[in-house]
Amino acid sequence: MFGFGKKKTKKPKQEFIEPEVAVITEENKDEVLRTISMREKELNQADREGKAKIYEDIGMTYLKIKEDDQAIDALEKSIQYKKTLGDGYKTLLRLYNKKRAEAAKMNDDKSLQIYMEKMDQMMQISKDVTRGVR
Amino acid sequence: MRVINFIIENILTQASVTIALIAMLGLILQKKSAGQVISGSLKTMLGFMVLVAGSSIIVGSLTYFGKIFAEGFHMQGIVPSIEAINGQAMNELGLGRDIALTFLAIFVFNIIIARFTKWKYIFLTGQAILWMATMTTVFGYFAGLRGITLILVGGFIGAVFAVAMPAIAQPFVRKITGSDDIALGHFCTVGYVFEAGVAKVFGEKGDKKKSVEDLKLPAQLEFLQDTYLSVMVIMVPLYIITAAFAGADFASTLSGDTHYLMFAFLQAIQFVVGVYVLLAGVRLLLGEIVPAFRGIAMRLVPNAKPALDCPVLFPFSPNAVIVGFITTTIGCVIAMFVLPVFGLAMILPGMLTAFFAGGTAGIFGNLVGGRRGAVIGGIAHGFFITLLPALLVTTFNSMGFVNTTATDVDTVTAALLYAWLIGPLLKAF
Asked: Which InterPro entries does the UniProt entry name for this protein (chain A) (predicted)?
C-alpha cells in the first residue's frame, strides 16, 4: 500500500561527459601546421579585427593538435587585437583553468598565481565586452 | 606583562592591525620576501583605512537622503548597497576586526569542506566573501554571539554557503558552459535558482522553447560602461526628485547657504564618491590577502573546481544578460512600489545589482524556460531580490545602520538564517 517498503530503483547518476575535441593524428599534423603557417602569412594584410580573427583561428587549430601553449599564445594575441567573447575567449579560459589545475597538482605556486591572475583578467574582459567598453 | 597587555588591549583590538596581520600570515605562508611581507601588510592596512573613509562619506550622504525622503514621501527610503553595509559595520559598528577574522575563517572552512567532502568547490570571488563575512558577523553579533564563537559560527556558515551555492548552481552551469571544470562563485545564487524555478513553471517547454540568443538585441549597454557613472545616473535624479518633494522650506534647513536642489545634486555625487573610495579601499584590502589564500586553497585541494565571479557565464549567453538586466530592473521597480503597501520599506533599485545579478539570472531563466522563461523569470527575480533585503530593514535600523540594506541575496539568506533560526534558538536555550 502506498508503495511503502518497496525498494526504489535508483536511477543511475548520469556522469557529465566533457565535450570531445576532434583529435588529429600524427599523419595530418603536418598538414595542420601548414594551414597555420598559411594563415600567419595573411596577418600582414589584415586590419586589427582581421588579425584577431586569424589568431583566433590559429589558436583553435593548435588546440586540435593539443599544442596548448601555442594555442594560448595565439588566443591571447587575438584578444589583444580585439576583445570578444567568442569561441576563442571560451577556449582560452578553459586552457587557463587547465594550466591552473596542473600547477596546483605540481604544487607550483608561481604558475598557479599567474594563471589565476589571467583568469581574473578574463572576468574583466567579459565584464567590459558585455558593458560595451572598448 | 604590561607590554603584552598593552599590545593586546591597544594594538590587536584595532581592526586595521588585525587585517594587516591576516595579510602578513598569508604572505609568510607563501614564503614571500621580508620586503613583500611588509609592503603587502601595510597596503592591506591602508586599504582598511581607505574603506573606512569611504564609509564615512556614504553615511553622511545617506543621512541627508533619509531625512529628505522621510519628509518628502512620509516613509523610509532605503538604498540597497552591500558596500555601505560593509563600511558601516566595519567602521560605525566597530565590527571590523571580527569581520576580518570571519573572512579568514570562511577561507579556512571552505578549504576544509572542499578537502574532506565530495563538494570540491573553492570560492574565489574575494569581494563576495567579504560581503558574506560582513553579514554573518553583523547578524551573529545581533543574535548574541561574541568573540571566537561569533567568528567560528560565521566562518562555518559562510563557508557552507561558499561551497553549497556553486554546488547548487553547477547543474545549470554545466548546461550553460558545456563543461564541468569551472563553477559559479557569486552570492546571488538563491536568486538565480529562483528565476530558474519560475522559468520552469511559466516558461516555454520542449520544442516550443526558443532561446533569446536567437534574437537580435543591441550588443552593448553603453550607459553601464563605467560603474560609477551608472550609480550616478540613478542617484542624481533620485536625490533631486526627493529634495523637490521634501520642499524648499525643509530641504533648505539642511543645505545651508547652497540652493537646496544644488545641495541634493552634490549629496548624490558625494554618495558616488563614497562608493568609489570604499571600493578602492576594498581592492587595496583584498589585493594581498586574496591571492595569498586562494593560492594556498588551490594547492591544498588540487582537484578543486574554482568558483568564479558571474561574468564567467556572460560569454555563453550574451542576449540573456541584457534581457535579464532589463527584466530584473522592471521587477525591482514593481517591488519598490508594491512592498510599501504591505508595510515594508521602499527599496530603491540598484543599477549594479540589476546588471550583474539580473544578467546572470537571465541566463538561468533562458536556459530553463526560453524567451518567456527569461522575461517572466526576470521580473520575478527583480521582485525577489528586492523583497529579501526589505525583510532585513527593521533589523538593520535597530542596529543603527543608516538608510541602507544588503543586496546579494545569498548573504541576505545567511542573515535571515541568523535572524529567524539561530537567534531564536540561542534565546530559547
From this structure: TPR-like_helical_dom_sf, TPR_rpt
